[in-house]
Amino acid sequence: MNIFGVYQKLFKVYGPQGWWPILVLEQGIKYSIPYRSLSKYRASFRDPYFEIAVGAILTQSTAWKNVAIAINNLYNAKVLTPNKISRIKTARLQTLIRPAGYYKQKAKKLKIFSDWLVKNYNGDITRLKRCKASEIREKLLTLWGIGPETADSIILYALNKPLFVIDEYTRRLCKKYSVEFKEYDGYREFFEKKLPKNNKIFQEYHALIVASGKDKHTKI
To answer: Is the pTM of this model over 0.90?
Structure first.
């Protein structure tokens, strides 16, 4: 499997995806916002970096359009920070994120994640950036409800550190090229070893694989 060759083909067919999207007032969920520009969306009730992590948790086992509704609900309720999520009543949180499905489990996951950030990082997810990606990953995987795919999504998109995200679409793509591994990390290391260690390429490649996976007519 020519890893970079597949990336180039995907990019030619689908173009830049601009992940990870965040909520922009009067525009809804918007793509292609540069990471360096995220800070201007900060507010007392909203942390865009944390919002990306919330999206990574809520998108488990559901379509992104449902996650977008849930995030919009959290924004309107003015609770898009770890401190706000930590303090909100669980029943209220469940109601807000209900469109994302599995709302009881996901509310628990958000509570645990937020409490952890408040306790260890004063509610500021960007403080995690001081650690190496491997160290952050190890920490995140100790939290209930955060598995390898979610942890890597948080690290890659919310913290802008290069870890390649593996999902079911990635496994299917690899299988087309007779590449299969038993474990998640086998796939991740396969991509990371054959690509420049560049967070932008990792982000775009992952998004392109998802775009291709959702396209029933793709021949790549």
So the answer is: yes
